[in-house]
Amino acid sequence: MATLRERITAPAHLEPPVPIGGLTFRAGTPGDLAGVHGVAVAAAAVDDPHARPSTADFERTLSTEGLDVARDTLVGVDADGHVQAYGIVIDVPSRVTAARAVLDGAVHPDFRGQGIGRRVLAWQIGRARQRLAMLDVDLPATLDVGAPQGAGALRLAARFGFEPVRNWVDMQVVFDDGADAGVPPLPEGFVVRSATPDDIEPLRLAKNDAFRDHWGSQPMVASDWHGFLTATKSRLDLSRVVLDPDGGIAAFAIVEVDPDGFAARGRSYGYVHWVGVVRAARGRALAPIVLDASLRAIRADGLSAAVLHVDAENPSGAGRIYERLGFVAGEVHVSSSASL
Q: Which residue of 16, 127, 185, 193 sits 20 to 30 Å from the alpha carbon of 202, by its own alpha carbon?
């Protein structure tokens, strides 16, 4: 296989799309963050009513290592200068088994049906090709989009050659006064405790090890990981780690809480972003132990539920573990990819 530089064709120059539907297009700026967030919230209300994107999510995205806001973002603005559409190209900075560019974007529902989304996506594909074509690596490469099952974004992506490759199940457990789910006892010599800021780098190493055999996962770079765990909605105090007898992290459950998202789901909740067990510690039932510890912390904090997303084809059978802890499956989100 040739390197990406050798085999990917990319446009030498990439201009913003021509005006359409009352919008003109330009490169995004940090000052567009509020407008982009507003479009994402309005789009989610139609496409994914149980979700509400947070400003912190976009701040984190725009701070991704290597992302150039002036070249990797696009906004469509109306005659009054208000953002009504956006596209972001995220060249995933870690490339061990594959190179990926994630395309994130949306069109405000009031401006749909005029071809705006097609032009934004076409621009994103061109920019992603430019990014990947700069790499002298001999790896598979994909462009990836994600959306709720049945969303128009997936139909649009299909017109550009994207195909569904993975399903992610939204799961929720609502806390009540019923009996606690039984979990296995903690193995002798292991300890469960709250995560702390001192755990951030050890957690990154543990996450990278635990997710090495998970679909689409590439190692997290230190700067991006630090951004995740120091964001305003990160809750290390509700997150839990299991330490092995030598004091190393053997398992973890990492929690976020975003009060702005409570109304969309109809209740307060903690979002469990990652649950993992390092490869050397597998087979000791640490996943249900560490997740149960986090669920107890979320409940004790006064939140009424916990939410997570699981790969429907997770190799460890995580979905069954979550069901035993009371989680119930809900909506499905789809990852769709185009190979280069």
A: 185
What is the separation of C-alpha 161 from the centre of its chain, rounded to a whole number of angstroms? 22
User: Does domain 169-334 match CATH 3.90.79.10?
Assistant: no
CB 202 within 8 A of CB 222: no
Q: Where do the H-state alpha helices sit in the chain?
A: 4-7, 33-47, 55-62, 69-72, 116-132, 152-159, 200-210, 222-230, 262-265, 286-300, 318-324
In whole angstroms, what is the distance from residue 243 CA to residue 188 CA? 11
Does residue 11 contact residue 129 with C-beta atoms inside 8 Å? yes
pLDDT tens for 2-32 read 898 999 999 999 999 999 999 999 999 999 9
- Residue range 4-161, CATH number: 3.40.630.30
The torsion of the CA quartet 60, 26, 32, 155, rounded to 10 degrees, works out to -60
Which tokens sit at 264? 């969309």
Token pair of 58 as six digits: 């976009």
pLDDT tens figures, 223-272: 889 988 998 899 999 999 999 999 999 999 999 999 999 999 999 999 99
H/E segment holding residue 146: strand 141-148
The answer to whether 219 and 96 are in contact (CB under 8 A) is yes
Evaluate if residue 132 carries a pLDDT over 80. Answer: yes
Helices within 77-189 (DSSP H only):
116-132, 152-159
All structural domains of the chain with their residue ranges: 4-161, 169-334
Which among 263, 310, 234, 236 has a CA at the least distance from the CA of 59?
Answer: 234
Residue 280 has phi, psi (to 5 degrees) of -70, -15
Closest-CA residue to 276 (of 260, 264, 287): 287
Give dist(CA 201, CA 155) in Å, integer. Answer: 39
